[in-house]
Amino acid sequence: QVQLVESGGGLVQPGGSLRLSCAASGFTFSSYPMSWYRQAPGKERELVAFITTTGGTTNYDDSVKGRFTISRDNAKNTVYLQMNRLKPEDTAVYHCKVWVRRDYWGQGTQVTVSS
Asked: What is the pLDDT of residues 56-100, one digit of tens each?
């Protein structure tokens, strides 16, 4: 039973920061790359960040590059997304995702950036 549970979302002012967490269970976490996606109302779901099994390689969408950092703690079975200098256009539901013979998605956590 693969399970992903996101937390850490909330309401923040432009320029602020949030750290999202995704707690994973039901699979050997350290053996799988992890991703963060987001979906804003009326928009397509987009890949935000990707991280390899050890965290040695990361990739980011251009819209968040330099502001967001994906990381993982394999001992805690958790992947993080540190979001700095947030903008209103970052407002979305953020989901973590893993492919274990198929895609598994967390329930999502809402991030709202507004003054």
From this structure: 999 999 999 999 999 999 999 999 999 999 999 999 999 999 999
Q: How far is CA 76 from CA 20, 48, 65, 104, 106, in A?
A: 14, 22, 25, 19, 17
The CA distance from 87 to 6, in Å, is 20
Q: Cβ of 65: how many Cβ atoms within 10 Å?
A: 10
Indicate the pLDDT class of residue 12, thresholds 50, 70 and 90.
very high
CA distance 52 to 67: 19
Neighbour count for residue 50 (Cβ, 10 Å): 17
Q: How many Cα neighbours within 13 Å face the side chain of 104?
A: 20
